[in-house]
């Protein structure tokens, strides 16, 4: 059965009567009645989005298009949903600690703001690029819609190797970033948040620098420390959200409770380590963990709190995952093939590929990272009957609590930790139920079901806002 098309979104009496089905600009013949699209590219960037499937953005759009096929939307609307609104590329020049000049390319893509201000993190990573930012910005549009928080989607990246930057250099780069982008960002325009190698320290520098130009503006960025207008619960929100998502998923699949489930995590930074902690606390057996430096396995279950302590402490009191005494060193590729109940990628994009998807021995895959599975791998997992809990839902706990932080900042008040956590639990549960319903009713994979829900929500906002 097909999902309801555009006409079904246009409910009479919702204030859009001006555009009855058939006369709405979206249905107009482009030859006879031109409609001004709000999606305009920043002429500053010569590169236009390349939708070829071999780009990251193209791969993300493979999933979007799959859901669009269920929705039967007019071509012009599809184009709008597939096209980023603004793309900015800047070069940041700083003086390195050595006295030399350092130059870093940085990107911000603002994909869609029909549902609210653009929202999404800034990652510091050697692979950061415009293509990467486009793909991740688009995911944020669908993620905020799935999570039903009133934000749009954006993402940014600074192309650098954070392990080669001192604390002061990271601070200088962040301040330069604010100086370069402050005209297109702000509490009601575009609000950054945590991402790879960008935690609460980077968010503090952002808040400080932005406030120098625009006055005290805590709502200009989320993921700040609690002592600097941050919220309780944001530090572990994405990891906790993944745990809640897995809990709901197992329940719906009649696969039993978390207790005793065998888990493998690929990525042990903010998201991976907190997710491991939450799952361990609720009785799961975390039998393997990997990060950039290698991995560690223990069939009896790793002592996750001790492992987190170990990787945070410096030698001789701590070190890398591989030097943890409570397990056997293992490469990421080995852990990927380890039999387990749930495999959770929590690091970079495209970890699960056509080359390794045949080798996975998990019963379920839960995507804590953004875009960890390529479309080819996704297809293989479908054929192998391995259900996938998609990134735009599984990793949305972070942006949900970022929304709670923004709300507190705008109102100048603070919620108790318990209130944040209860609200996140409720939202993750409700969002899952909505996706599951579409999955069951329309017999769609969970990923497509999540995209259908997101596309309907974004489209509804576009229609209500009008297009001229
Ligand atoms: N921090 C947040 O609130 C959110 C993060 N995410 C996603 O979760 C993932 C992880 O983000 P964070 O934990 O915040 O970053 P992080 O910087 O705290 O941790 C990144 C982890 O990935 C590993 N890693 C980096 N490059 C790698 C590579 N080439 N191969 C294997 N492992 C590699 C690192 O060793 C580390 O364990 C990313 O995909 C991010 O987009 C999604 C939603 C929100
Ligand atoms: O909290 C935020 O705004 C960052 C969230 C994000 O970048 C993500 O969910 O991928």
UniProtKB/TrEMBL annotation:
Residues binding NAD(+), per UniProt: 238, 270
Oxidoreductase as UniProt keyword: yes
Keywords from the UniProt entry: NAD, Nucleotide-binding, Oxidoreductase
Active-site residues (renumbered): 155
Gene Ontology biological process: L-glutamate catabolic process
SUPFAM superfamilies, sorted: Aminoacid dehydrogenase-like, N-terminal domain (SSF53223), NAD(P)-binding Rossmann-fold domains (SSF51735)
Tagged with keyword Nucleotide-binding: yes
Catalytic activity: L-glutamate + NAD(+) + H2O = 2-oxoglutarate + NH4(+) + NADH + H(+); L-glutamate + NADP(+) + H2O = 2-oxoglutarate + NH4(+) + NADPH + H(+)
Molecular function per GO: glutamate dehydrogenase (NAD+) activity; nucleotide binding
Residues the entry annotates as binding substrate: 119, 143, 402
Protein name (Swiss-Prot/TrEMBL): Glutamate dehydrogenase
Organism encoding this protein: Elliptochloris bilobata
Lineage of the species this protein comes from: Eukaryota, Viridiplantae, Chlorophyta, core chlorophytes, Trebouxiophyceae
């Amino acid at each position: 059965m097909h999902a309801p098309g555009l006409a079904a979104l246009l409910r009479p009496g919702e204030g859009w009567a001006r555009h009855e089905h058939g006369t709405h600009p979206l249905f107009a013949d482009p030859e006879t009645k031109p409609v001004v699209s709000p999606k305009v590219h920043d002429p500053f960037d010569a590169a236009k989005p390349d939708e070829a499937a071999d780009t990251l953005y193209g791969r993300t759009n493979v999933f979007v298009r799959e859901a669009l096929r269920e929705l039967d939307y007019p071509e012009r609307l599809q184009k709008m949903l597939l096209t980023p609104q603004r793309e900015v590329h800047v070069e940041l020049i700083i003086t390195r600690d050595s006295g030399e000049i350092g130059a870093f390319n940085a990107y911000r893509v603002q994909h869609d703001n029909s549902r609210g201000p653009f929202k999404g993190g800034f990652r510091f990573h050697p692979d950061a690029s415009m293509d990467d930012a486009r793909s991740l910005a688009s995911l944020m549009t669908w993620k905020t819609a799935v999570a039903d928080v009133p934000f749009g989607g954006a993402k940014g990246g600074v192309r650098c190797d954070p392990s080669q930057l001192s604390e002061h250099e990271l601070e200088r780069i962040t301040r330069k970033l604010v100086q370069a982008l402050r005209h297109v960002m702000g509490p009601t325009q575009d609000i950054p948040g945590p991402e790879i190698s960008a935690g609460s320290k980077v968010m503090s520098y952002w808040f400080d620098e932005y406030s120098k130009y625009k006055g005290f503006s805590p709502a200009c960025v989320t993921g700040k420390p609690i002592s600097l207008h941050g919220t309780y619960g944001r530090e572990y929100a994405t990891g906790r959200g993944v745990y809640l998502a897995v809990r709901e998923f197992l329940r719906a699949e009649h696969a039993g409770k978390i207790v005793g489930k065998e888990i493998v995590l690929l990525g042990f930074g903010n998201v991976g380590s907190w997710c491991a902690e939450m799952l361990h606390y609720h009785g799961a057996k975390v039998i393997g963990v990997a990060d950039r430096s290698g991995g560690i396995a223990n069939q009896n279950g790793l002592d996750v709190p001790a492992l987190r302590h170990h990787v945070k402490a410096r030698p001789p009191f701590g070190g890398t995952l591989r030097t943890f005494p409570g397990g056997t060193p293992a490469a990421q590729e080995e852990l990927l093939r380890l039999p387990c109940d749930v495999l959770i990628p929590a690091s970079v994009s495209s970890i699960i590929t056509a080359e390794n998807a045949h080798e996975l021995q998990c019963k379920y895959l839960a995507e804590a990272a953004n875009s960890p599975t390529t479309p080819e791998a996704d297809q293989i997992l479908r054929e192998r009957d391995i259900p996938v809990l998609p990134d735009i839902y599984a990793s949305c706990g972070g942006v949900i609590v970022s929304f709670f932080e923004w709300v507190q900042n705008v109102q100048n008040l603070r919620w108790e930790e318990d209130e944040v956590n209860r609200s996140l639990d409720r939202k993750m549960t409700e969002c899952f139920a909505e996706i599951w319903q579409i999955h069951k009713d329309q017999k769609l994979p969970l990923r497509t079901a999540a995209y259908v829900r997101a596309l309907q929500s974004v489209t509804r906002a576009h229609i209500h806002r009008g297009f001229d």
